[in-house]
């Protein structure tokens, strides 16, 4: 009996651990429903998606939100979004609902839709920035009119079984919970109004649920060693090895080859690591009081342009970043007493779009860091990052024993000088 209980506890702990990110312990996506008014057979609600993750955004083709109605609710209309299917509305005469499905699926509208179909913070194709990168763009919202539902706080039944694709799997959503009603300020900020009823749904991300293999890898090099440590072999799995394309292949000149597919299936460049993204960390220069690192990100997917990309790195010397030359940089402090994590992201209209594989599928920057003489060292891989995340997914690092190491012997010039002194000493001794 004791063995069964202990096994059960272990399983419970593991299930919670996979959705915990040590570099962003409080990161989540919160879906908030605010009932704004009652209708003869239901209510009108504002649904807001808040991305509270520091470095993981929702990229193209955007979010997809689903749930299960508690009763026989229907959606009369949606502003700022739309359901992907209408369902069977044959029992309705006259006014036909927007959606009659028991399990509706809602997506954001594309940019440029008519003004009368828009709602505040809508119509971005489902793309939502990370909170740490751009809080103003970390919100997406729409308004929904629900019928055949309750018409008071006591009779409304909360939807169940929320699902979020952003844009693929990886998010697990908890149950809807009633929370204190949201307060709103009028445009002149002189009057405060309140939602009639509010409930929240919290969704957390797990890379284990999103994909079986990593989606990026890290390679390393340094000025003090000629050896380049490459990404591990098949770091991202070799399932695309049979369909990969060589960089000089004639297939790449075909029309439409770079167009993304609906299932986001990649068209990979043939490499030994078979990763869509490679991050290269190069220790470039060592000054008296500073040292310099070059960071390069390369895209090997011919069907993907990465917009709003982000790079989160954990390194002990990021608490002394002096200058970042062609990326934006923001320190991340998940724990108040530790400042060893930072986020790099592109400058708007300059390098915020990481192009598809090819000559332009590369972005790079240099970072100048001040030395802390009490902790600074090049020994035992200290100069290389502990963790690297691209777009919120952890990249595979090479094994520690393959890192570029400091030479064991002294430089050749120094050895020659010592040998010369010894020879002179011996010569004088003989004389």
TrEMBL record:
Subcellular location as annotated: Cell membrane
Biological source species: Medicago truncatula (Barrel medic)
Signal peptide stretch: 1-19
Gene Ontology biological process terms in this record: cellulose microfibril organization; plant-type cell wall cellulose biosynthetic process
Principal cellular location given in the protein's record: membrane
Keywords, ordered alphabetically: Glycoprotein, GPI-anchor, Lipoprotein, Membrane, Signal
Gene that encodes the chain: 25495420
Superkingdom of the organism of origin: Eukaryota
Membrane topology: Lipid-anchor; GPI-anchor
Gene Ontology CC: plasma membrane; side of membrane
Record family assignment: Belongs to the COBRA family.
InterPro entries to which the protein is assigned, alphabetical: COB_C, COBRA_pln
Name of the molecule in the record: COBRA-like protein
Residue intervals of the COBRA C-terminal domain: 215-404
